[in-house]
């Protein structure tokens, strides 16, 4: 417990240092294989393109080290003699918001999510179709080698993987079995050990808002939160700091009032101060083309004592908000509209948590992942 509290305090001190640092938004586009860096104006939240890098293959999910100096991107690369593009991990150095390619390593399986742990020695991955989780070694030169140090069979549709602030535990939401798989992490050996139980069941399947997809851990409270894909829902989970086990505490709808379409939850992020959590909803309603899409970002207050949620509102956004991010000051939120090649920018009103639209920017084709960081 003490380690968890110390880690949380260190994170908040790092955040304080980032309030005056230059901030950047990194965006990966799948179809045109671009990785683009935008500088974020600290006062207005406006974006200015800063640097552009052509990846060796498609843009994909990415993960930054805690110090922001290295970035890892999954990229599907055409290889001679192969029928399909082959998954690789591209290792990049980041300096002043610019990228330098360090290494490209072939890996066995595709991943909808990758995560570099706090030690910087391990790249964790979830594998959707195969129902697996993997750990790949990162060497002393910050290159993902593609060497597999551990893997575990879980269940189909492993959507996401991340660690808690102490870097002792890892969580993998799965939509199909309606569960979150939970592991203990040994960062020195690059090994995962299933907890007891190895998974916890999501919201009641009779409930519309089940099937955990992404997970976000609270920066200071013993709580975690999942976006739930089926129907659009959000769940709050109690976190046992000793064992790492999760316990379901609350599930709420994330859809706009009066919504009767086919909503599907996607991404989830918490503001750095831990006051608000936001989740994206994709509108996949069919047969009603004459009705405008109602893709939204749902906002919630987090009770500072209990960690439970109360709804703020739903805020319209671009179609198919598969990925979004919050800047390190907690003042701005950016959403990638995957199916319309647009990036929506918002100011977070600090008193209420409401979102104010401040801009819209064109992106490369099929923006698949977006993340914010400070130097």
Describe the structure.
Helix content is 5%, strand content 53%. The chain is mainly beta. Strand 5 and strand 6 (86-95) form a beta hairpin. It is globular.
Quick overview of this protein structure:
This protein has one helix at 2-18; strands at residues 23-29, 34-40, 47-54, 62-64, 70-77, 86-95, 98-106, 113-116, 122-127, 132-138, 144-153, 162-163, 169-174, 179-186, 191-201, 212-217, 223-228, 233-239, 246-253, 263-270, 276-283, 296-302, 309-316, 323-326, 332-337, 342-348, 355-362, 367-374. By secondary structure, the chain is mostly beta strands. The two termini are 30 Å apart.
- Biggest sheet record: 4 strands, antiparallel
| Beta-strand proportion | over 45%
Percent helix, as a range, is under 10%
**Strand arrangement, largest sheet?**
3-2-1-28
How would the global form be characterised? Answer: globular
Return Rg in Å: 19 Å
Distance between the termini: 30 Å
Q: SS-based structural class? A: mainly beta
Order of helices and strands: HEEEEEEEEEEEEEEEEEEEEEEEEEEEE
- pLDDT average, as an integer? 93
Q: Total helix count? A: 1
Poorly predicted runs are: none
């Amino acid at each position: 417990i003490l380690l968890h509290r110390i880690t949380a305090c260190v994170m908040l001190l790092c955040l304080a240092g980032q309030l005056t640092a230059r901030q950047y938004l990194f965006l990966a586009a799948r179809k045109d294989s671009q990785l683009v860096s935008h500088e974020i104006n600290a006062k207005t939240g406006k974006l200015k393109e800063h640097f552009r890098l052509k990846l060796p293959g498609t843009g994909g999910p990415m993960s930054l080290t805690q110090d922001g100096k290295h970035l890892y991107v999954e990229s599907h690369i055409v290889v001679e003699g192969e029928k399909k593009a082959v998954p690789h991990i591209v290792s990049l150095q980041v300096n002043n918001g610019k990228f330098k390619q360090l290494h490209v390593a072939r890996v066995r399986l595709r991943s909808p999510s990758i995560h570099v742990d706090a030690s910087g020695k391990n790249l964790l991955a979830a594998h959707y179709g195969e129902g697996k989780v993997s750990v790949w070694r990162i060497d002393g030169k910050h290159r993902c080698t593609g060497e597999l140090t551990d893997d575990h069979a879980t269940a189909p549709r492993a959507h996401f993987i991340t660690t808690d602030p102490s870097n002792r535990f890892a969580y993998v939401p799965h939509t199909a079995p309606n569960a979150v798989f939970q592991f203990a992490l040994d960062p020195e050996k690059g090994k995962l050990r299933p907890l007891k139980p190895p998974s916890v069941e999501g919201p009641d399947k009779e409930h519309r808002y089940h099937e955990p997809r992404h997970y976000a851990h609270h920066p200071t409270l013993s709580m975690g939160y999942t976006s739930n894909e089926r129907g659009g829902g959000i769940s709050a989970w109690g976190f046992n700091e000793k064992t790492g086990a999760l316990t379901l505490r609350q599930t709420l709808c994330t859809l706009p009032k009066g919504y009767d379409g086919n909503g599907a939850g996607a991404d989830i992020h918490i503001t750095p101060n831990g006051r608000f959590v936001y989740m994206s909803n994709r509108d996949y309603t069919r047969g009603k083309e004459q009705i405008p899409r109602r893709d939204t970002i749902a906002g919630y207050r987090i009770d500072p004592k209990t960690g439970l949620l109360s709804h703020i509102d739903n805020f319209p956004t671009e179609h198919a908000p598969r990925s979004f991010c919050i800047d390190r000051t907690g003042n701005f939120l950016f959403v990638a509209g995957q199916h319309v090649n647009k990036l929506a920018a918002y100011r977070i009103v600090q008193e209420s948590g409401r979102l104010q639209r401040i801009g819209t920017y064109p992106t490369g084709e099929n923006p698949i992942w977006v993340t914010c960081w400070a130097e």
